[in-house]
Design brief:
The chain is mostly beta strands and 254 residues long. Helix content is 11%, strand content 42%. It has helices at 19-22, 89-92, 121-127, 131-144, and strands at 24-32, 38-41, 56-58, 62-68, 75-81, 102-109, 112-116, 151-153, 159-165, 172-179, 194-204, 207-215, 220-224, 232-242, 245-253. Strands 3-2-5-6-7 form a 5-stranded antiparallel sheet. The protein has a 4-stranded antiparallel sheet with strand order 8-11-14-13, with no helix packed on it. A hairpin with a 6-residue loop joins strand 9 (159-165) and strand 10.
């Protein structure tokens, strides 16, 4: 949440170094939302998808209070709500939930788009677990990707995938599949194998020149689902059984 608030040597900045990209300026004030913290949904927006039936979502941890930069087209679809202390309803309920402090900034910069959260939304996905954080972070990725995912799967959320370009290998890709399916106990001691995993992957190229299982069980197949278009190849990958890890190497050609 403090992205660009420090110089390279760790010295604090007075304002965000990427404020023009984010479309906001830092007020110099931090607020702790760890107790009775909320955020206000200002209206329908790509970043508020899934929150149509509520005006408030969870907030947690430290928040930087930022304001929209004057003269920009940046949007603030979600804003900070001051701490609401538990007491009798007529005293706890504020006159308004709206403030001038966004907890989500959406802006255009150059030919690209930016989304900035002045609180640790990604940290809260893992440490707090409230679904509000997962939903708003997922909305941000959908918005930035134009709702086009390069990788989709039928696997449960306990199976993690990463698709990376291979440095120094033109048109080379590595696909990693990591299974963390287990009991609720942590740390993970016993893994539960997952069966019949299916993935749809979009990568650059018009032909599949190489495919190899570098690590993991056999039984992995790959096929081209349709004719390449826009110099992109659409693949369907099937894994019969995933225990802990599987690493796949893919290389395309034009």
């Amino acid at each position: 949440y403090e992205t660009s608030l420090y110089f390279a040597d760790g010295t604090p900045r007075e304002d965000l170094g990427l404020g023009d990209v984010f479309g906001c300026t830092y007020t110099g004030i931090k607020k702790d939302a760890a107790h009775y913290g909320y955020q206000y949904i200002r209206g329908e927006h790509a970043l508020t998808k899934g929150f149509q039936d509520t005006q408030l979502i969870a907030n947690w941890g430290t928040n930087l209070l930022v304001r929209k930069l004057v003269g920009t087209q940046a949007e603030a679809p979600i804003t900070f709500v001051p701490q609401i202390y538990p007491q009798s309803p007529e005293r706890a309920w504020p006159k308004t939930f709206e403030t001038d402090y966004p907890t989500c900034m959406v802006s255009a910069y150059g030919k690209g788009r930016a989304v900035y959260f002045p609180y640790g939304v990604d940290k809260q996905v893992w440490s707090h677990g409230h679904r509000d954080f997962q939903t708003v972070l997922g909305n941000a990725f959908d918005y930035l990707l134009g709702s086009e995912q390069k990788l989709t799967s039928n696997a449960p959320s306990s199976v993690h995938f990463t698709l990376n370009r291979v440095e120094g290998d033109e048109n080379g890709y590595m696909l990693h599949a990591i299974n963390t399916t287990s009991s609720s106990r942590r740390p993970v001691l016993d893994l539960v194998p997952v069966h019949d995993i299916r993935l749809n992957v979009v990568i650059n190229g018009t032909k599949l020149a190489a495919f190899e299982v570098l690590s993991g069980l056999a039984g992995v197949t790959v096929e081209i689902t349709d004719k390449p278009k826009d110099d992109q190849l659409r693949l369907h990958i099937r894994m019969e059984r995933l225990e802990e890890y599987c690493g796949l190497y893919l290389r395309t050609s034009n």
